Amino acid sequence: MDRERIVITGVGLTAPSANSLNDFRHCLLHEIPRIQEMEVRYMGKLPVGICDFDPLKYQTKKELRNCTRAGSIGIFCAQEALLDAGIRMEEIDTSRVGVYVGITEHGNVETENEVFNLAQFNYDVKFWAHYHNPRTIANNPAGEINLKLGIQGPHYTIGAACAAGNAGLIQAVQMLRLGEIDLAIAGGVSESVHSFGIFAGFRSQGALGYGNDPNRVSRPFDSKRNGIVVSEGGCLFIVERLEDAQRRNAKIYGEIVGYGMNTDATDAVLPNAERQAQCIRLTLNRAHLSPEEIDVVNTHATSTPMGDVIECEAIRKVFGNSNKTYINNTKSFIGHAMGAAGALELAGNLPSFNDGYVHPTINIDELDPKCILKNLVINRAKYVGNIGIILNTSFGMLGTNSAVIVKKFEI
Description:
CATH class of the largest domain: Alpha Beta
CATH superfamily of the largest domain: Thiolase/Chalcone synthase
Low-confidence stretches: none
Strand order of the largest sheet: 5-4-6-8-1-9-15-14-10-11
Largest sheet: 10 strands, mixed
Mean pLDDT: 97
Number of helices: 14
Order of helices and strands: EHEEHHEHHHEHEHEEHEHEHEHHHEEEE
Number of strands: 15
CATH topology of the largest domain: Peroxisomal Thiolase, Chain A, domain 1
C-alpha cells in the first residue's frame, strides 16, 4: 500500500490576493500582490496579508460569533474544495473522511482578546467568554470543519510551524495508504494577523519586515529585504486514492509522488542548510526522482536576511547541477501565511501543469549575491512549455523541514 497512487482532486483556498485558484493563479502570473497596512494592537500600522472571503457563504452569524477566524477560514476552504471536487457530503460515508489541518499556532488570538477585554472590567473573570475553551484547543480549526460539515471521521490539527501546510497533506497521503480513510480534506490554515504577539515576537527577533509600500516589503532574495510580512489564509485539498477518483471520473490536479520531513536539531530559529537539503533528498528518493527531473521548486524563503541565504545554500546543494529546474517564490505576493503557507504555495503552482508557466518571485530590484540560484524566475512569469513535476518546500521554527512532490497526472 505504500506505493498506492494518491491524487489531488479538489482545491479550496483563500489568500490575501484571491478566493479561488483561478484568481490566485491570475495574480501570480500578472505580478499582482495584495498586501495592506493594518493597525496592530500596541504596534501601530504594519504591512499584513488579509483575506477578503465571505464567511457568511457557509456560516450563519450565530456560528461566526461562537467560532474562530481560523475555523471560518477552514470551513470556507473545505466547502470550496468539496465543491471543486464534485463531492456531496450527504452522498458519502463521512466516517471514512479524515480532516488534517496544518497550523503554526492556535489560541493566541482568542486569549489575547479575552485578556484585553477583561481589562475593561477590572479583570473580573465572570466576563470571560463562555466559548473560550473550544475556541483555543489545538484541534479547533479541524474540529470546526467536522462539526459544520457533519464529518464523523478522524480530525486533528498538525502543529508543524511553517511547514504545517505540507505536513497536513503528508498526513492525508499516509492515512489513505494505511486504509484508515477513503477521502481526506488536508492542508493548512492561519489566523496569525489577528495576534499582536506574532508581530511583537518577530520584531524582537529582528525578523519583521517594514517599508513604505506594503506590497514591496516581502522581497525574498532581494539585497534590501528586511523581514517577514505576516499574513492569514488557508488552503485545503481533496486527496484520495487514484482508483476512487477514477471511479467517479474526477478531474485530477496532480499526483503526490513524494514527501519528506526531518528536523534540524540545531537551533530554535536559525535554519540548517544541510538538514534542509537532506529533507529534499529524502523526498526525491521516496519519489524515485533525480534533481534534474524536477521542473519547478517553489521555495519557502520568507524574506529574512539569514533565512533566505541558508535556504539558497540548501537548494544549491541539491539542484546546483540541474539546468532544467526553475526556482520561484510565492511569499513575495502574499507574505507569509504561516500554517497555510506550504499549501497555498503548492496550490498556486499546480496550474503550471496546464499553462506551462513558472510564476515569478517579484519585488527583486537587486538580487543578493548570496541568493543567486540557477533559473530563478524574477519579476516576470516564464513560459517553459512542458511542466511535469513540482517540488514544494516549507521549513519552520524548531527546525522542522518538509517537502512535497506533485507530478502531472498520467494514466
